[in-house]
Amino acid sequence: AQSVAQPEDQVNVAEGNPLTVKCTYSVSGNPYLFWYVQYPNRGLQFLLKYITGDNLVKGSYGFEAEFNKSQTSFHLKKPSALVSDSALYFCAVRGIDSGNTGKLIFGQGTTLQVKP
Amino acid sequence: DTGVSQDPRHKITKRGQNVTFRCDPISEHNRLYWYRQTLGQGPEFLTYFQNEAQLEKSRLLSDRFSAERPKGSFSTLEIQRTEQGDSAMYLCASSFLTSGSSEQFFGPGTRLTVL
Q: Do B61 and B78 contact (CB within 8 A), yes or no?
């Protein structure tokens, strides 16, 4: 069965420091991986995706993610955190199913807290 | 605003009542999804439409839940005889049909509270 794990409930980082939010996945075949961010009382906003190609994917708001097939990981990174990056982050994988529905399987989320 | 919209944003109801939520996807998107998100958890897939056809339903979708997308545009999600366990955020998302690699665009959600 496909699954996504985000091992940290919360990540704390000082403004200006690099940040990493971890994600590991389990899926048969080639994974389609996504990162979304959720601000309070708002829907999920797409940040970036990995489908194929370069293992380092660049996305919105200066975020990037590194796909590592051998470690089945897709960690989200940013070189210099901003206080406004504080939010709830979700990693997701496209489920494998016969109907090619594209449904997403989400991790439980990681709260990022950036302190001034 | 050309994003995904949902109505209402909040719904408070008493146990046993029926509720209906609406989702308006991005106009050219032919894929539409419903997810449910409870506190401290990631969204969980409920159901999927391709145009007007409902092609997949999760086992989470009990027989009290029904969803429609009558003309392949907006969609409704109805919950009959609501229970306290139905309290959650209901999210709608849409995407354009390709190979399944397209990202989904989410609406702001409808927060349901069942008293």
A: no
